[in-house]
């Protein structure tokens, strides 16, 4: 299967514009330590981590139809496993982050087997129950602080670099790598034969099955993959915080509700949607975070308004009006 060459001025202009936007964005993010202050760098680190969480939830729900409200299970597991490996295993930051992601993906296999015995709304509720089980379980582990949590020794963060400025730069580039890798991973998957299968499932699961797609196996693979990458982002988030507690690690609001908001307003089932949603979410948070409950109400109003205008989200609307794909993944027969 081959891609048809784009012809005409409009497609060429869109392609050129996409390359310019992507290149400028990557250049600005890659050089952020040179122009951003400490507060801006920390905000960018958090935003890049949320981008990774949003891309993983979108891959799970937007392309395989698995609407999970329990992704905080893997954020929390990733954070706790990272702390355990760093504190008790004496591992450095990078090896601990990599190993906790793999370990969480392995744990996701039996939990996924349980969750996949449920369908639809029951699956969503089941993933939330699994996350609560992990939260209650971690609260009983005394070596990791029990219900009150545990702090990361300063020496662990210092293993990245000697000076404070160098450590912050190293942490920023870890966040940059996680955020960019999440987008690249989803883009690469959607351009592969698995991407064709996922797109078929998104459009019609029954039709996908009739042409030979093993929908259950593919969904399970994506579930495990997103669990591992979600844990990677979770481990980094709590490295940044230097402290972890069960309530913070397995918070449905922080790690699932906000991520769903990001994907829904940006555009579910698109790569660009989570990017747009992350930018809007953090812009809104910077402006309205001090408004208390009004801030949460405003988020709800925005989400409902976007859905009423176009349930495909902001990028879905832009795409339908212009035909523009910032990160094209669609294939057509020659």
UniProtKB/TrEMBL annotation:
Pfam families: BPD_transp_2 (PF02653). Keywords: Cell membrane, Membrane, Transmembrane, Transmembrane helix. The chain crosses the membrane at residues 17-36, 48-69, 81-109, 170-190, 220-239, 259-284, 291-309. It is a multi-pass membrane protein. It is found in: Cell membrane. Its main location: membrane. The keyword Cell inner membrane does not apply. Signal peptide: none annotated. It comes from the Bacteria. This is Branched-chain amino acid ABC transporter permease. It comes from Donghicola mangrovi.
